Amino acid sequence: MSNKxxxxxxxxxxxxxxxxxxxxxxxxxxxxxxxxxxxxDISDSVTHAVQMDATDEGxxxxxxxxNFDVAVVTIGANIQSSVMATLLVKELGVKYIxxxxxxxxxxxxxxxxxxxxxxxxxxxxxxRVAHNLVSSSxxxxxxxxxxxxxxxxxxxxxxxxxxxxxxxxxxxxxxxxMAIKKGHDVNISxxxxxxxxxxxxxxxxxxxxxxxxxxxxxxxxHK
Length: 223
Ligand code: ATP
Known about the structure:
The chain is 39% helix and 27% strand. The chain has 223 residues and is α/β, with parallel strands linked by helices. The protein has two domains: 115 residues, NAD(P)-binding Rossmann-like Domain (Rossmann fold); 97 residues, Alpha-Beta Plaits, CATH 3.30.70. It has a six-stranded parallel sheet, with helices on both faces. β2, α2 and β3 form a beta-alpha-beta unit. The N and C termini lie far apart (43 Å). Bound molecules: adenosine-5'-triphosphate. Adenosine-5'-triphosphate (ATP) binds next to α1 and β2. Adenosine-5'-triphosphate binds next to α1 and β2. This is TrkA family potassium uptake protein. It holds the Pfam family TrkA_C. It comes from Clostridium tarantellae. GO terms for molecular function: monoatomic cation transmembrane transporter activity.
């Protein structure tokens, strides 16, 4: 992927982890926090780190925020600052805005004012951990929306050495297989004739209702 320009506003646990990871992956990262110590701490791990109040429109303008591809607003606790910073980056013309919320109502407000995607880290992680606890073969569960999700399944024994056609997950459960992971190799356009082998991981997409039927059937088999 081509090198993109990211601005990360707020360098708490979440924001600093996003900023450092993006930089390590070869992207340009401008990291902003009102707290000078946090700016100092991250200065060697990002392209630029600046101490400023992200609710100060003039300061954001001076930094040329409108030229950034993506803004990640990670201020959570102070809802007013989170909303103001999100609104300002939107008005300045940043194309894609991701904002961190602290509650469902906060998330709703962020969507209303123009965030393209809102993350509720504790809530999202709680959902993923719970799915993994219900069945250890559910390695990951990512909510795309309240209705649709992506699931990563360690293939149960009864699937082994069968083709996708034999498994007929689409007609049995209404879910679609997006990819099959075989160690480091990932088959991202699986055919009906592709065979599921032991230790493969199947990545599938479906409605929450259909996926939960699949989860139930897998955990029943394992009991
Ligand atoms: P995390 O869980 O990521 O640690 P948090 O929700 O506990 O975050 P917050 O206090 O909500 O932490 O905000 C994250 C960061 O945003 C903090 O480092 C804080 O200094 C910074 N921040 C808060 N307000 C502003 C602002 N107006 N401008 C710039 N940075 C701000």
